[in-house]
Amino acid sequence: MRYQWKDIEWVFFDEASMIGYETFIQMDSRLRQLKKKEDEPFGGLNVIIFGDLLQLPPVKMTPIYDQPLRYLPAVHLWRLFSLVELTQNMRQQGDTTFADLLNALRVGELTAQHFQLLMTKILTEEDQVGEFGLHNAIRIFPKKDMVAAHNEAVLEYYRNLRVQMYTIKADDTLVNATRNATNVDIGSIVSTDINKTGAMPSQLVIFVGAKVMLRSNVDVEKGLLNGAIGTIKEIIWPNFRRDQMYPTDIPSVRIDFGRDGIHLIQPRAVQFPALRNYGTIERRMLPLILSWACTVHKMQGCTVDYAVIHLGSQLFAKGQAYVALSRVRSLDGLRIDELDCSKLTGKTPCNEEAIKEMERMRRYQMYRAL
């Protein structure tokens, strides 16, 4: 995001741990082009980067603080910044016991007392009603297949209640074709990976009461950002229809985002490359996915009051347990569906390289202060 205060322009990068160094270079290059200042880092703009380096690292990229050898001897962009460390925990500020546990987990220093505390939060049959029921508190899993299985289980629960559901299918069109696609099924040249289709799903089951997550930034000022979670309150069909008339109908929906209020979310169009070099696909669809469950990666940056978290054998990356647990405001809002203590010790819970970088920055700031 870019802001201007008086005559000074600022650029803010959020969630630094998710930005790879390769992306960092692209940001720098683009800002130099936009400001027409090729010799000044970030085009001469003032840049502030927010984030916790000990959260999940970027997928298939080098961490933002680690300059790859292939970029030497270029300027190490990360080393141009100074550290301002925030020490007050705002998310868990009302639960110091939980905050202490998280601080220990993020650096791999859990004690026996911490494990005993986590054991008291294991999900029980009594928890299956109320806030921690199947369709209430969000489930946070390490893997996509676990998320899909839980979301399908919740859909089946509502089907058994005979809730009226609608299947919404994306409207895909081939634009800017680079090959003759006259006899080609458009579905065969569209990726099944949502991350390669502009974050828009090909199909979505919705109903009044469904819990959904935004997959794009709709309105930053209103808090309607990628990752915002809410509940569908109304479905509005095209042309003032009272129901879905055609399989191709894509409605608008009113969603209650809690503290951010109720907002109208309309279908959006995105473009992405077609498979096998056929050109560009334009997809029109609601920018939503079901969210009774989400992966740890998708929850990064989110805050919830209640969650059921998987801390079992399926954890596979450093920082997953820390990020998952730290999404919740307090221990009262936490339940654990599986706990493998071995996954919270050793090298799995924390990123040693990120810890070393934090220590380096702290030493550098002390040296500058002398």
From TrEMBL:
Source organism, top-level taxon: Eukaryota
SUPFAM superfamilies for the chain: P-loop containing nucleoside triphosphate hydrolases
Protein's name according to its UniProt entry: ATP-dependent DNA helicase
Lineage: Eukaryota, Metazoa, Ecdysozoa, Arthropoda, Hexapoda
Similarity-based family: Belongs to the helicase family.
Enzyme Commission number(s) of this protein: 5.6.2.3
GO MF annotations, alphabetized: 5'-3' DNA helicase activity; ATP binding; hydrolase activity
UniProt keyword terms in alphabetical order: ATP-binding, DNA damage, DNA recombination, DNA repair, Helicase, Hydrolase, Nucleotide-binding
Catalytic activity: ATP + H2O = ADP + phosphate + H(+)
